[in-house]
Amino acid sequence: MVKRGDNNYAWVSNGPWAGPRGSVLATFADQLVIGGTFYHGADYYTQFRCQHTSSSSVGAAVARANAIKGYGYAVVTSNCMDHAYNVLTTYGASLANPASGYWTPNGWFGALGVASGFGPIIDLASER
């Protein structure tokens, strides 16, 4: 658990989304080491999916992502899935709230189906 106000090492990545080693996709595909602490190896994340939005609030989403660095971390109430939900809905995505029954990141990811406006699941390796 990370106390509220302490850095939980949430990341913010701006830049090109796709293409050869787009900076956003590289954030997921490459190993994550922050301040000398190893968090995950390369290829830890293997899939992603997209949702088209009619408008976006990029500045608000970046501000929320930066604020989340100080939200702490708790397994049930303040975890990576909750943080992703908060940033993406601030951006303008329409998402099912993870608290509505999707207790694991993979369960929530799988529930974000085409009927919810999401495209198909894409293998991250295919975007390299």
Which tags fit this structure?
about 130 residues, alpha+beta, two-stranded antiparallel sheet, 4 helices, 4 strands
Tell me what the structure shows.
The protein contains four helices and four strands; from the N terminus they run αβββαααβ. By secondary structure, it is an alpha+beta fold. It has one domain (23-127). The strands form two sheets. It has a two-stranded antiparallel sheet with strand order 1-2. A two-stranded antiparallel ribbon has the order 3-4. The protein is globular and about 40 Å long. It starts with 22 loop residues before the first helix and ends in a 5-residue tail after the last strand.
A few lines on this structure:
The chain has 128 residues and is an alpha+beta fold. The protein has four helices and four strands; from the N terminus they run H-E-E-E-H-H-H-E.
